[in-house]
């Protein structure tokens, strides 16, 4: 071998050794012990403020969800930006009041497939923001932010999607095997009103309308393709979440696990119905079965984070998208007034908690008002992914407050508008117009002494009412009409 060939071989060997060393260094940079934290957002659907054990309900044990509060922080004044599903999710995923971009409606049924209805493509989701910073992202569960192609989750920053696009879905399709099912009807088979129990199928006329056709044009999708899902839907979503964690444990990820439980239709799996056989009212028994199933599912996800060693490097949030609909589900929002659809506290104050073992304190109760857009800001800060641009967030990074590095409240003012309904919270004062017309009178409450909003102080304190109304109108002028 001549000298030139020997030199070439040595040169190639040197290059390969440099490349190998670079790969080893890059791999070392992404060891779980040194990487940016995973973000897991666990979203329940229509869960009332007072239903969890940690929120004071002894009837339905929820030890796994409660463990997030025990191992982290429970917010007693946690809010969402709307009291029904779609606009609330828009606020959560953009970190902004959805009224800033005119998204106040809650599409149901065929309206989901209206090409003009959905989260505006100009808005940046938390998934897109974190993916642009190197995160792997997944939505598992309910989307409800547009059912046509331009709004699809895979076009909104999610690498993976398993779930459905509309407002709801049956947990088990007809003939409803393995579950007890309660369906709303305008009339019973004999033409009468009331409740009919036929084995594990129950009809009830208490709501005055039929069960919505949730599954119409609304298949379970993997990515963009329909799949036949044999499992109870809560269990299927949990299975997919665990698989996602297993496959991506070597890199930072965002997992947005948006369960449809405990949203209607009411369907309780047999094993859970047996667990709550002591509850006489079958309506409440089905709800208890669904909530307990959800709690066990959250426990399965948390267990996967522990067994993979990821828990100390994972920031976990749990919340509901709005307050519970009491007549529909037997939801309990106590001690709050109202529920889903209202701008009283029972509609927008929700169970909210987070944990980050080893970083955030454990077992802490945080009393100051926080709101769901704070999750975007907090996750971005934890991921070292600064938010810049012309669209400022309404959310606040909560970490300095939770760690005691910044005094005071994250928010002095919280704002709501849902068509004609409107509200404002300033410190402990709450201004609210909960009626469906602009001419309805504004009400005033002192939440510090009256969290149940039972004493309207608007007539007694007209100056305070006027002051808060001026603040609401000033903020409202910033929003899209």
Secondary structure layout plus pairing:
Blueprint: H1 3-29, E1 38-44, H2 63-70, E2 73-75, E3 78-79, H3 85-94, H4 126-132, E4 136-142, E5 160-164, E6 179-184, E7 195-198, E8 201-204, E9 221-222, E10 225-226, H5 233-247, E11 253-258, E12 266-269, H6 270-275, H7 282-307, E13 314-320, H8 326-329, H9 345-348, E14 352-355, E15 364-366, E16 370-371, H10 374-382, H11 399-402, E17 413-418, E18 421-426, E19 429-433, E20 443-446, H12 462-476
Parallel strand pairs: 1-11, 1-13, 2-15, 3-16, 4-5, 4-11, 6-8
Antiparallel strand pairs: 2-14, 5-9, 6-12, 7-8, 9-10, 13-14, 17-18, 18-19, 19-20
Radius of gyration: 24 Å
CATH level-two architecture of the largest domain: 3-Layer(aba) Sandwich
Derived from helix and strand composition plus strand pairing, the structural class reads alpha/beta
Work out the number of β strands: 20
Provide the spatial order of strands within the biggest beta sheet.
10-9-5-4-11-1-13-14-2-15
Mean pLDDT across all amino acids = 93
Overall form: globular
In total, how many domains does the architecture comprise? 2
Q: Report the portion of residues in β strands.
A: 15-25%
Q: Major sheet: size, sense and barrel closure?
A: 10 strands, mixed
Q: What is the terminal separation in angstroms?
A: 80 Å
The number of distinct helices, counting runs of at least 4 residues, comes to 12
Detail the poorly predicted runs.
3-16, 18-33
CATH superfamily of the largest domain: Alkaline Phosphatase, subunit A
According to CATH, what is the topology of the largest domain?
Alkaline Phosphatase, subunit A
Question: What's the CATH class of the largest domain, please?
Answer: Alpha Beta
As a percent range, the share of helical residues equals 25-40%
């Amino acid at each position: 071998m001549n000298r030139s060939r020997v030199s070439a071989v040595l040169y190639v060997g040197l290059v390969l050794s440099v490349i190998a060393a670079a790969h080893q260094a890059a791999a070392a940079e992404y060891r779980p012990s040194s990487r940016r934290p995973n973000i897991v957002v666990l979203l329940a659907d229509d869960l009332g403020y007072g239903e969890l054990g940690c929120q004071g309900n002894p009837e339905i044990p929820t030890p796994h969800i409660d463990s997030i509060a025990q191992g982290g922080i429970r917010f007693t004044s946690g809010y969402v930006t709307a009291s029904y599903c779609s606009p609330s999710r828009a606020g959560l995923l953009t970190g902004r009041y959805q009224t800033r971009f005119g998204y106040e409606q809650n599409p149901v049924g065929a309206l989901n497939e209206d090409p003009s209805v959905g989260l505006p493509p100009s808005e940046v989701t938390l998934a897109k923001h974190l993916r642009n910073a190197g995160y792997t992202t997944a939505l598992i569960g309910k989307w409800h932010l547009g059912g046509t192609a331009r709004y699809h989750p895979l076009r909104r920053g999610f690498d993976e999607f398993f779930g459905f696009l509309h407002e709801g879905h049956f947990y088990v399709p007809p003939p409803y095997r393995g579950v007890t099912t309660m369906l709303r009807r305008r009339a019973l088979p004999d033409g009468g009103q009331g409740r009919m129990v036929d084995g594990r199928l129950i009809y009830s006329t208490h709501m005055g309308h039929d069960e919505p056709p949730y599954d119409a044009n609304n298949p379970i999708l993997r990515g963009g393709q329909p799949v036949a899902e044999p499992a109870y839907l809560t269990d299927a979503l949990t299975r997919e979440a665990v698989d996602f964690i297993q496959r991506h444990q070597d890199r930072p990820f965002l997992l947005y696990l948006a369960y449809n439980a405990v949203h209607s239709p009411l369907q309780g799996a047999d094993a859970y119905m047996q667990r709550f056989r002591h509850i006489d009212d079958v309506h409440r028994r089905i709800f208890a079965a669904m909530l307990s199933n959800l709690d066990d599912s959250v426990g399965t996800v948390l267990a996967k984070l522990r067994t993979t060693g990821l828990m100390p490097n994972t920031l976990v949030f749990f919340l509901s998208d709005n307050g519970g609909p009491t007549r529909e589900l037997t939801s309990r929002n106590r001690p709050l007034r109202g529920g889903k659809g209202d701008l009283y506290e029972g509609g927008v104050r929700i169970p909210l908690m987070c944990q980050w073992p080893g970083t955030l304190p454990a077992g802490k109760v945080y009393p100051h008002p926080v709101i769901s857009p704070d999750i975007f800001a907090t996750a971005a800060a934890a991921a070292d992914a600064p938010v810049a641009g012309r669209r400022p967030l309404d959310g606040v990074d909560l970490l300095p407050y939770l760690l005691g590095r910044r005094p005071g409240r994250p928010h002095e003012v919280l704002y709501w508008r849902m068509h004609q309904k409107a509200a404002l919270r300033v410190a402990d004062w709450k201004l609210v117009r909960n009626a469906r017309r602009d001419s309805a009178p504004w009400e005033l409450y002192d939440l510090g002494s009256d969290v149940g909003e039972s004493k309207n102080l608007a007539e007694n304190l007209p100056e305070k009412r006027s002051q808060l109304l001026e603040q609401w109108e000033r903020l409202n002028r910033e929003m899209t009409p």
